[in-house]
Amino acid sequence: MSRVLALWCPDWPAVAAAALADLPATHPVAVTSGNRVIACSATARAEGVRRGLRRRESQARCPELYVAMADPERDARLFEPVAAAIDAVAPGVEVLRPGLLVLSARGVSRYFGSEEAAAERLVDQASAAGVESQVGVADQLSTAVIAARRAALVPPGGGGTVSGAATHAGVGGRTQPVCTASRGAGGSAAQARDQNHRCFCGSTGSGRRFAFRCRCGARASCGAR
User: The whole model's pTM is what?
Assistant: First the structure.
């Protein structure tokens, strides 16, 4: 059975809305439909914004919140360059929806030497396109999609079992890798999660040590155990 690799860009509707509005990645953003939040950024969640909240309530919790209307065409249009960037190094990409794509893991893992190396390369490629991402690999498509949300590589024959990366709790309740470059320089875990040392969501590896790319440009193994 051919294994499946899934690449997921978290909070894509909010990411796309922020990009179109030329907002920095750290600005809180929410996307609404029917006057309720359907997607929001990690910084918005850190201020208490959640999916399902009414627009007025979300703005009361986060006065700086940028609110955009749901726009599937915007989401799809802005995801095209990301999909193209991935397809340039791993042909055969299929976009399931804006922010989520899949491809056969067999060819790309052979080309880059392993599933771990392929996942890291694709995360780097998405990063070069300006977006954060997570990769998951599994025997089945549905499991690979779930694995991508955990940044996990499910061993062959693992069925529906998904084991996530070792991480620290981060902003907005999302698990967040800690930048060991910051910690190695004497920074605390809290300081490692500030705007300058927030690791990209993308992670790859095996076992309990994963590699991360931080906003500060550092690349190091996660300090979590």
Answer: 0.72
